[in-house]
Amino acid sequence: MKVKDIMTKGVIYVNKRDDVDYILQLMEKYKITKAPVIEDGKLVGIVTDNKIADKLGSIRSRGVTPARMHAMTVMEKKFYVVSPDTPIEEILETVGEPGPTMLPVVSNEHLVGVITKADLLPLIDDEGSIKEIMSFPVISVSPDDRVVHARRLMIDKNIARIPVVKNGKIIGVISDWEIANAFAKLKKSIALGKQSSHIKNLLVKDVMKSPAITAIDTITIKEAAEIMIKNEVGCLPIVGGDKKIRGIVTRTDLLKRLLKKLKKRQ
After folding, report:
1. In 3-state terms, what secondary structure has residue 48?
2. How does residue 180 score in pLDDT terms, banded at 50, 70 and 90?
3. Based on the number of CB atoms within 10 Å of its own CB, is 193 exposed (0-12), middle (13-18) or buried (19 or more)?
4. Last residue in a domain, options 120, 146, 175
5. Are 71 and 16 in contact (CB under 8 A)?
6. Residue 252 sits in a domain of what CATH number?
7. Residue 98 pLDDT > 60, yes or no?
8. Do 134 and 258 sit in the same domain of this protein?
């Protein structure tokens, strides 16, 4: 199987001069967290919710509103591209590596599609137990933790999402997307002199997505992939019969398992 068989062809892209306010609205409208950046018809970068969260929360960006911050200042300039004929196995080998998790598909120097982890999930048909691949103990935060603490944890652990847990039970999830939007709204509504203190004291419970999509620890790996596809989520907290969190599985976990299975079949 090749990239052209599963890539997303109707690509949502932005111009390098588009402002972050517009980009976030576009992302929300189309339920995406990454977009190619185009200049004069050519691909020049990739803008991500991760990079936007970094820039909006940066001291160096203090006083710069999302409407005055442009794609060229928040985009990832180093990225890989693939061709429509690239084998899927080659894509799976890169899963989990640093850098944007969306790969532009280029043919004759033109952007013809993108491929993401979500595009690869339908390939999973593994009937193994989710317990075989879920991660535990789970890195989590409490609803009363500060957002800057959650963000630092995400950067240090190289993760894009963190479950929010209270008394052992998951009550929400916080990700780059929620943080980027929270910082953007704050910068638009709070006076410049007060922005720093507001960002510093912003709490997880005021930003998190709730309720969280979870699954019982008796499901299969295939069922986990189906739940994530249906609900368009990048991670799936796994709970026991008592509803307390037991582990977590991400798209990366699922795709690494897929690669292992494909290699065994060869």
Report:
1. strand
2. very high
3. exposed
4. 120
5. yes
6. 3.10.580.10
7. no
8. yes
